[in-house]
Structure formats: C-alpha cells, structure tokens
Amino acid sequence: MSATLRVSLLQHTPDPDRAVAIAGRLCYAPVSAADLKQEMSDEEVGKLVRILVRSGHHSALEHASFSFAIDGVSRACTHQLVRHRVASYNQQSQRYVNFGHADSFVLPPSVAANDEAKSVFLEAMEQARAAYDRLVEIGLAEGRGKESVQEDARFVLPNAAETKIVVTMNARELRHFFQVRCCNRAQWEIRDLAWTMRGMVKQVARNLFEKTGPGCLYGTCPEGKMTCGRPYKPEDVDGVAAPSA
Asked: Which of 25, 75, 175, 181 is catalytic?
C-alpha cells in the first residue's frame, strides 16, 4: 500500500565542475572556452568553482544541469516541488494513466506510527480508490472516452496518491533547492527527497555542491525565531544516505 521513494540520476552535464569553471573563467580570459577546457587542471577547476560560489558569480553555475527520475512520492510532494520554477518537469498524468490497483499511496511516518491513525488513513485510501474505480466504470458505461472518464474520476484521489516525475535543474537552482528543502522545517517528504538528490549530485560534482544544504550546516540558521532548534552538523549529512529528522 505505502509507496517508497526511489530516485535515479538519469543524466547530467559531463564533468559538471569543469563546465562551470570554464564558463566562469571565460569572462576574464582572452582565449576560447575550448582552449580553457584543455588548459585547466583539476585543482584549478576546484579552486575556481569555490571562488565562483563564494563570490556570488552564480550565473556560471547554470551551465551544469542534472536530470532525476523520481518515483514513490505523493502529489502533495510534487505540488511543492514544482514551485521551484527554474526547472523542467514532466509528471505522470492522471488523465492518461489509470490509477489502478497496482498503484499505491504515500503513508506519512507519523500516521504509520499510530495504529488508530493508520487504520483511519488506510480506510480513507481504500474508499477513495473504490470511488475512483466506480466513477471510471460508470463513465465508460455511458460511452465516454477513457481520457474524459479518468480526468474526472481523479478528482476523488487524495494528495497521498503516488506519482512519478522527471525533474531537471541546473546547479544554481539545486543549491537553492537544498538550502530551503533540506531544512528541518521543510515538509518531511520533500526533505527526504532533497537530501537524497543532494547525495547523488555530490557524487558527480563534489566542488559544485560543497557546503550545500540548510543554513544551519555552515552558519546561523536563517529562520530566526522560526528555527527548529535542531541544527544539522556537517559530519552528519556527508553521504548519499543523509538522515531524515
């Protein structure tokens, strides 16, 4: 019944750190970008990327992009995700794809931890599925087309309905995404997603995503009075399997 988060890094700009370093260096170099690609050592690339990030020359970061396949998330999560507008999205359609019995719902951990709450939740999900199936059945019996039937029947599906989405973001937007969505005050599901994505891109672009995540990791919490009071430590979030608070 409960969907499980699954994320794959589909593709990314080849050698993302170098691509960004070349773009940043070109602004001040008399030679071509092709020449810079050959001339810059790995050490120079890392140093320049850190300078670009530190100095706020973030337009250069937009030359590295990353595409993710994300499954096992709820419509509640993707509704938050698509608010990050400097990105490209393609999401599984509830109009063209029938929400069949093989599909599932995302069960919040706090609900799963309480037997009574879990029972109420699962009952509501089954009622929603039954209503959806019956509306599809009625619509098809009326002779309406499959797409028309499903686009109306989906209105009874809850935010918990599992969905799939492909997301492409550049490095600049990803750094912002990690800053706001890795925070303990972010909703738990998109926070888990953000930590997972962060771990993946750090594997392929170490310099670009150095010192990413919520503000509390490397300084003062930017939330002020709204702080959660539970700051992360850099040593706690250093790998792909980052903790979920």
From this structure: 181
